[in-house]
């Protein structure tokens, strides 16, 4: 259900239930969680790329999974939440290549990417409210941070289907490229990141994630702590040395 391919320091993950628009099941979530955990622990993986197989990125929760009756979504969401925590806490850059529609929790997965590319034919829809559900998989947290509170209100209450270009105008995606070039561009970006100071990226991600929770004084203190850590990396030393020697740096991710 999750295809894995390694290209140098980049781990490419493809959600792979194309006949169901890569809709998410509990089994897919558990597999994704394991893969993310392994990637986190593998020093050879310096960047990740997440995309979808077939014409969709991900249609969100598989609406066929629970059948009739009243499902226990609270319990099911625990399986989602550990995946979201793994994505948000991933100490490596995550490039997301949105190849087609991203709906509901599928849109949430896309938004957890650090750099988000979309094919021209991709689209985004929160979808939750259309089936009488509240936003989940971290959507209520990440969406207002990306687009602002007012736009998040509109998107979550009305659930329009946004084109890739509309999503880019809102800041949901960083770049829009023709579909046939999407993977190539996303991979080039992931490769570039994989050769960067990946420990520093992890610390930068942590600072950004913490920022809305902290007072200015606390944010400054955290910056100082993490700068202390970054300052002790081999990559910082190499970066400064390369600058002085007027040559490109060779970063190793520690
Ligand atoms: C699907 C799905 C799908 C199954 C299309 N499931 N089959 C978390 C935890 C707990 C509870 C529940 O929720 C959550 C989080 C969530 O993600 S809630 C939101 C769940 N997702 C949706 O509500 C999206 C439903 N799908 C759609 O709105 C459309 O299908 C989208 C906008 C994704 C794509 O539209 P189209 O490109 O026009 O394709 P389509 O609608 O024709 O779909 C193609 C096929 O895929 C179709 O099956 P069929 O047998 O008729 O060809 C759909 O039924 C199936 N499919 N989404 N989530």
UniProtKB/TrEMBL annotation:
Pfam hit, one: ECH_1
Entry annotated with the keyword Secreted: no
Molecular function GO labels: isomerase activity
Top-level taxon in the UniProt lineage: Bacteria
InterPro entries: ClpP/crotonase-like_dom_sf, Enoyl-CoA_hydra/iso, Enoyl-CoA_hydra_C
UniProt keywords, alphabetically: Isomerase
Family according to the record: Belongs to the enoyl-CoA hydratase/isomerase family.
Descriptive protein name: 2-(1,2-epoxy-1,2-dihydrophenyl)acetyl-CoA isomerase
């Amino acid at each position: 259900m999750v295809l894995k391919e390694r290209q140098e320091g980049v781990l490419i993950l493809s959600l792979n239930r194309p006949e169901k628009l890569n809709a998410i099941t509990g089994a897919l979530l558990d597999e994704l969680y394991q893969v993310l955990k392994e990637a986190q622990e593998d020093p050879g993986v310096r960047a990740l790329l997440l995309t979808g197989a077939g014409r969709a990125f991900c249609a969100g929760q598989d609406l066929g999974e629970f059948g009739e009756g009243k499902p226990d979504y609270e319990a099911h969401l625990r399986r989602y939440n550990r995946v979201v925590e793994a994505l948000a806490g991933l100490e490596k850059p995550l490039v997301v290549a949105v190849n087609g529609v991203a709906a509901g929790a599928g849109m949430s997965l896309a938004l957890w990417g650090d750099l988000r590319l979309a094919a021209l034919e991709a689209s985004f829809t929160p979808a939750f409210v259309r089936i009488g559900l509240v936003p989940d998989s971290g959507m209520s947290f990440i969406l207002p941070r990306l687009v602002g509170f007012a736009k998040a209100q509109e998107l979550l209450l009305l659930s329009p289907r946004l084109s890739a270009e509309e999503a880019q105008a809102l800041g949901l995606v960083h770049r829009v490229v023709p579909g046939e070039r999407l993977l190539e561009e996303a991979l080039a970006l992931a490769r570039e990141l994989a050769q960067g100071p990946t420990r520093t990226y992890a610390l930068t991600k942590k600072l950004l994630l913490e920022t809305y929770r902290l007072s200015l004084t606390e944010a400054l203190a955290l910056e100082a702590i993490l700068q202390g850590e970054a300052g002790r990396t081999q990559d910082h030393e190499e970066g400064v040395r390369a600058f002085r020697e007027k040559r490109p740096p060779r970063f190793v991710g520690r």
